[in-house]
Amino acid sequence: MKLAPSLLSADFSALLEEARSVEPYVDLFHWDVMDGHFVPNLTFGPPVVNALRDRVTLPFDIHLMIDHPAEYAAKFRIRPDDLIVFHVESSDPAGEVITTIREHGARVGISLRPGTPLCALDPHLDAVSSVLVMSVEPGFGGQAFLPDALDRIRALRAMLAGRPVDIAVDGGIHPGNAAAVLEAGADILIAGSAIFRADDRVRAIRSFREAAR
Q: 180-190: per-residue pLDDT in tens?
């Protein structure tokens, strides 16, 4: 299991300190980039993400919940092990977005809303490194996990059929449901509130590791 804290739940006034407080204990950092159009919320843009890129050492998982990922993907400062994730429902053709991200030097991830059929991913599974399953409706942190996501994870694992593609899951993830999500086929757990709003962040992270075992 890889664990990715979502900085959407961190203290925005001290993002660097927040990231460093958990960096020794996790595997990558998840950024929720929202444009106020694709989802009804505004969060980080390239200047904020880029400001931390050289200040922390772990890979970035940059989740573009925006209408035009092909236009904005190359504005992020990245390293070769960073991942840029776009939505199959975005306005830009998926093939164009995949090419843009690859040419920029990042790994490619693809995501979809809870109501989008998994078959929408079929044409792109050979071209991506990761699929992000949303277990809440994207746009806001702190939502409850949608139980139907477990069946979607199982179905997606079967679709991947041995491809070297990770399954990440984002939305309502906490130590109490982590084992079930991993058993369904997930590789990467993305957690925001369960880490950054915990009384003891290190203990919360250890609880995830224990659930994975």
A: 999 999 999 99
